[in-house]
Amino acid sequence: MAVADTTELLEDEIIDPVTGEIIDQKDLAERLLAQAKEQGVSLIGPGGLLNQLTKNVFETALNAELSEHLGHDHGGTPIGENMRNGTRVKTVLTEIGPVEIEVPRDRDGSFEPVIVPKRKRRLDGVDQIVLSLSARGLTTGEIAAHFDEVYGAKVSKDTISRITEKVAGELAEWASRPLDAIYPVIFVDAIVVKVRDGQVRNTPFYVVMGVTTNGERDILGIWAGDGAEGARFWLQVFTELKNRGVEDVFIAVCDGLKGLPEAINTTWEQTVVQQCIVHLIRNSFRYAGRQHRDAIAKSLKPVYTAPSEAAAKDRFEEFAAEWGERYPAIVQLWRTSWAEFAPFLEYDVEIRRVICTTNAIESINARYRRGVRARGHFPNEAAALKCLYLVTRSLGPTGGGRARWVMRWKPALNAFAITFAGRFERTTH
Q1: Distance between start and end Cα atoms, the chain
Q2: Quick one: what percent of the chain has pLDDT higher than 70?
Q3: Residue 250 class from Cβ within 10 Å (0-12 exposed, 13-18 middle, 19+ buried)?
Q4: Which entry of 26, 76, 84, 273 is 20 to 30 Å from 294 by CA?
Q5: pLDDT-derived band at 10, boundaries 50, 70, 90
Q6: pLDDT digit string (tens) for 339-361?
Q7: pLDDT > 90 in the chain, percent
Q8: Among 361, 367, 183, 182, which Cα is nearest to 277's?
């Protein structure tokens, strides 16, 4: 049950089945808390009030299930030969810790509980906690320690590994899911992961992120490379995206990867390939001392926010005069990349804001890096891909790697519709 649904349930009136009177839930909660305090019972932890309430709720629900299965309530007249046959004790791990419950049984063993299925000692919410902690970079040992410390529950490393392995089928389904027909912008970025293949080596995993027509960030897919990718590799990637439903991309933002522009334009002829401003700034920092990075970023901002290319060149010359003597490699980097950078300056300011959303791109990369860093290296590419997918599924509320990208999306959408007139209509109708 969702949080909103639970809130609505708590706001509903509860009728006492014996007296027929309305029970004041706030008063009931206060009485329970007062009673627990008098008896020295804590709110949480083994034997705590929440633990006892959870036990009562489970046992009440299980007894109701068995009554429905048998066709009569406890103490009623059996309809057939099957009837209640006592209980068995079972401990289940929940989001509040281990809870010991008494599971009712029937004589012929045909009762299959739904709320706490047979042979299941871990509720789904616990699996989601494990996957969430794994996506945040915790190792299996750290997750096991977390459950022991916070919930007082022993969860083995093998159990945690089995939980995370369950996402393999989900990953395959996610990687082949249908995509939108149109993406105003896609970004191609790389995450470097250490993978043991005979020896530990740096392996790039390429992430393609799209901005939907609703202004959402959508992780379209993740592909492992070997560092020597060319046009053939990229053509396979973009052909796969096209086969999954992507009919048109207006702007593809990348960082000069070999063969990528040609592959994009082979797949979508009208797509504009744009030098990634975020990568250009990031690459500039490689040549700068850490103490100067903030100042350099501040000096570069007037260049890529200039109203025209002529104004941008003037601002760049000012930047070169200020920093060229100390960091000539940065000046050379921008001069070499200028031809790929310049088309950016022709776009409406709202489109620029979407393309140059440094925080949006870097926040995703930071989460990927945090998830990867905690593990050091991976035994194979499949294990690394699983880790990256766990991070991806945690990015948005739906678990599919889709979340809000920009807040002021409507002005950007209008700018795209004008700049790329006719293409919205062709792909959306």
Answers
A1: 37
A2: 67
A3: buried
A4: 273
A5: very low
A6: 888 888 888 888 888 887 655 66
A7: 24
A8: 361
Question: Taking 80 as the threshold, does the pLDDT of residue 29 lie above it?
Answer: no
Using an 8 Å Cβ cutoff, are 235 and 267 in contact? yes
The token pair that represents 79 in the structure block: 């309809």
Question: 101 in helix, strand or coil?
Answer: strand
Tokens of 130: 């494990």
Contacts of 89 (CB under 8 A, 6+ apart): 100, 101, 102, 103
| Cα angle 331, 336, 342; round to 5 | 100
Q: Is the pLDDT at 2 greater than 60, yes or no?
A: no
151: number of Cβ within 10 Å: 20
In this structure, the number of other CB atoms found within 10 A of the CB of residue 303 comes to 22
Which two tokens mark 92?
A: 């289940």
Q: Report how far residue 144's alpha carbon sits from residue 56's, in angstroms, rounded to the nearest whole number.
A: 27
Query: Burial letters for 256-285: b for 16+ Cβ neighbours within 10 Å, e otherwise?
Result: ebeebbebbeebbeebbbbbbbbbbbebbe
Structure tokens at 361: 């791109």
State which H helix or E strand residue 197 sits in: strand 182-197
Overall average pLDDT of the 366-374 stretch: 82
- The SS3 of residue 129 is helix
In contact, 16 and 32? CB cutoff 8 Å: no
Q: Is the pLDDT of residue 9 over 50?
A: no
Distance CA 207, CA 188 (A): 6
Tokens 């990369």 identify what position?
Answer: 365
Domains of the chain, by residue range, sit at 1-31, 41-121, 127-165, 180-428
Tokens of 429: 């109708």
Six token digits for residue 4: 């909103």
Strands 272-275, 402-404: parallel, antiparallel or unpaired by DSSP?
Answer: unpaired
- Chain segment 244-298, per-residue pLDDT in tens: 999 999 999 887 678 888 999 999 999 988 878 888 888 899 999 999 999 999 9
Query: Which residues in 161-238 belong to E strands, given as ranges?
Result: 182-197, 199-211, 216-224
Q: What are phi and psi of 87, to 5 degrees?
A: -140, 165
State the pTM of this model: 0.65
Highest mean pLDDT: which of 112-126, 168-182, 349-363? 168-182
Q: Are 320 and 259 in contact (CB under 8 A)?
A: no
